[in-house]
Amino acid sequence: MEAEAHAVPLTEMAFVILMAIALGLGLMRLKQPPLVGFILAGVVLGPTGFGLIGNSDSVTALAEMGVLMLLFFIGMELSLRAFIISLKPAVLVATGQLAVALGIGLTLAWATGAGMAEGLIFGFIIGLSSTVVAMKMLDDMDELRGDAGRIAIAVLIAQDIAVVPMLIIVSALGGQDAGLFAVAAKVALAVGFLAWLLWWLGRRGKLRAPFAAQIADNVEILALGAMGVCFGAAALSGVLGLSPAYGAFVGGIVVGNSTLRARIIPVIEPIQSVLVVVFFLSIGLLFDLSYIWNNLWVVLGAALVVIAAKTLLNVFLLRATGHDRNTALIGGLSMAQIGEFSFVLAAAGFSAGALGQDGYRLAIAVTAISLLVSPAWMSIMRRIEDVAAKGFSSYREALSEAYAGEIENVGEGLWWMRARYRAGRMTLRKWRVRRAQEKAAKSAAAQEVAEPAAGTVQDPDKPETEAATDKERSAAP
């Protein structure tokens, strides 16, 4: 009975993993980021798809752990000097993003007749970008450690710090008590502690971890210790009323400036990768396919407008802060989607009564669509930029050049399918011929056995000499 109870979850888990691998490989074959395949796996197997996996608390918890581990990992690999240089333009970019997003949100609320509270919440939601998706795209492009990656990380960390006052304001819009002094104190604490930590780490050398010599070669202790620092710092940050992601990032900075950095990174990287895949699967689980289908054009239109507007705004702000064209394009495209913390803001506004049910479902749908479309949007925009720089004479020639790899892969795939189809037909034809030959051989053998038996049958009442005489008579002309 116990084996039967565990058989179904294990089967579902194996099927989910195989589906994620298959879709990830398929997207890689089409030269697209595999994370889109992971999101699609969640959509296909989620509650509104085939219903194989549900939007359970365990999946949500693993997804949140993936976000924390990713920020912890980024903090470990961060260059302090480059991050400090990027902080000032990052704050300016994040402030500009939030100001424009609030203007858009309030304008939408005025145009649709919604209240100012919903306009503010929509502005907060639009103003945030996804740390996980942006970092994963930049890492896949080998840009995470370049100029675009450094400025994107700094902007996203500034946004994560801004989530704290956003959550407090959203709660206040629903009637919950939240003073202005408390908001200012928490933001000042987050910014002040990060500034002090960067100053302190910059003045001294590598930190020596306790028992470093004893645990340096122990993989299990290194993994558990790193995860303990990550989740412990995140929990402490949450207790202080700050974002858990902020705490995980700060914990990563501390570990990254210790003598065990080179030992810990290869140990926790596989764990972080698995948890990040779970995060992308959880994004797919949030897709309400029935709601999206019933409001298809509204959801798709809103998602595309938000992505395009954020791209233009990001590129403009990055250029205005002194970054070159390529850095501004890559950094702006990487932050074009709506962030995962927007789910938290939407849920907080809905539970506080400041956001209606229709607004909540629209915010969730648009956020999920933007996360799904963002990698493909980045790929398309970069190719358009490359094509525009080459100056082709016709759109057909430009598209052929931009998607030469995909066209070649699709052509190879169609050729492979035709070859397998022809081989299958030939094999089936040979099998049918062989079966027909075997049947004919069996029939002939059966006839050969039956004819001699029929010729030796005698009348039991006749003697043997009469039977022979009858044969001779029948044979005579």
Automatic annotation (TrEMBL):
Family matches, as Gene3D superfamilies: 1.20.1530.20
Family: Belongs to the monovalent cation:proton antiporter 2 (CPA2) transporter (TC 2.A.37) family.
Subcellular location: Membrane
Source species taxonomy: Bacteria, Pseudomonadati, Pseudomonadota, Alphaproteobacteria, Hyphomicrobiales
Recorded GO MF terms: antiporter activity
Gene Ontology process terms (BP): proton transmembrane transport
Keywords assigned by UniProt, alphabetized: Membrane, Transmembrane, Transmembrane helix, Transport
Transmembrane helix recorded as keyword: yes
Protein's name in the database: Ferrous transporter
Domain Cation/H+ exchanger transmembrane: from-to ranges: 19-378
Region (Disordered): 442-477
GO cellular component annotations of the record: membrane
Organism: Nitratireductor pacificus pht-3B
Keyword Membrane part of the UniProt annotation: yes
Compositional bias ranges of the Low complexity kind: 442-454
PANTHER family reported for this sequence: CONSERVED INTEGRAL MEMBRANE TRANSPORT PROTEIN-RELATED, SODIUM/HYDROGEN EXCHANGER FAMILY/TRKA DOMAIN PROTEIN
Domain of life where this protein originates: Bacteria
Sequence ranges of Basic and acidic residues compositional bias: 459-477
Transmembrane regions listed in the UniProt entry: 6-28, 35-53, 59-78, 90-113, 119-139, 151-173, 179-201, 221-239, 274-293, 299-317, 329-350, 362-380
Membrane protein topology class: Multi-pass membrane protein
